[in-house]
């Protein structure tokens, strides 16, 4: 098994466990809440973690089939996985802090701390490039393998 596949499967396990554990958090909030709803970013944490877990498994399969070098596959996998994890972490932070129902709303903040106005847009651009780019590299590598 390649290192890229190991990265992807390890991330899939971590994301899946975060999804399951955040499901308990979500359930507790739903049971205790007046309106029987979980906080917005607790719900997002739960759902996105489960989706990212299966996305990581898909990336593992792409990495397995990819015709690209180990260095390219490792870099592509890590780029996507690191930003999958970063997204989940931001959801957890907002869920714990109960500070927003829209992290893209201006002014950008974490808790009561205002962020520099350029930080969130920069993070989003990097996230898009890393997630889409990393996934595309592994996917194209796999497609080149199966259609040669």
Walk me through this protein's architecture:
- The radius of gyration is 17 Å and the shape is globular.
- It has helices at residues 3-32, 40-65, 70-97, 119-146; strands at residues 109-110, 113-114.
- The relative contact order is 0.16.
- The model has no long low-confidence stretch (mean pLDDT 95).
- The longest helix has 30 residues, at 3-32.
- 76% of the residues lie in helices and 3% in strands.
- The chain has one domain (3-146).
- With 148 residues, it is mainly alpha-helical.
Order of helices and strands: HHHEEH
Q: In which range does the helix fraction lie?
A: over 70%
**Low-pLDDT segments:** none
> What form results from the Cα inertia axes?
globular
Which class of secondary structure composition applies to the elements? mainly alpha
DSSP strand (E) fraction? under 5%
Provide mean pLDDT, rounded.
95
Strand order of the largest sheet: 1-2
Radius of gyration: 17 Å
What is the domain total for the residues? 1
Described by strand count, sense and barrel closure, the largest sheet is:
2 strands, antiparallel
The helix tally amounts to: 4
Give the distance, in angstroms, between the N- and C-terminal Cα atoms.
22 Å
| Number of beta strands | 2
């Amino acid at each position: 098994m390649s290192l890229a596949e190991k990265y992807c499967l390890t991330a899939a396990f971590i994301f899946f466990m975060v999804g399951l554990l955040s499901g308990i958090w979500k359930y507790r909030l739903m049971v205790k809440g007046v309106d029987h709803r979980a906080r917005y970013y607790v719900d997002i944490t739960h759902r996105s973690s489960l989706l990212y877990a299966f996305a990581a498994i898909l990336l593992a399969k792409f990495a397995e089939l990819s015709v690209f070098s180990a260095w390219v596959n490792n870099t592509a996998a890590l780029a996507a996985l690191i930003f999958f994890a970063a997204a989940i972490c931001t959801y957890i932070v907002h869920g714990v802090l109960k500070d927003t129902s829209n992290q893209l709303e201006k002014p950008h903040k974490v808790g009561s701390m205002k962020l520099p106005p350029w930080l969130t847009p920069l993070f989003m651009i990097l996230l898009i490039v890393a997630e889409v780019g990393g996934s595309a590299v592994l996917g194209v590598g796999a497609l080149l393998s199966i259609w040669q």
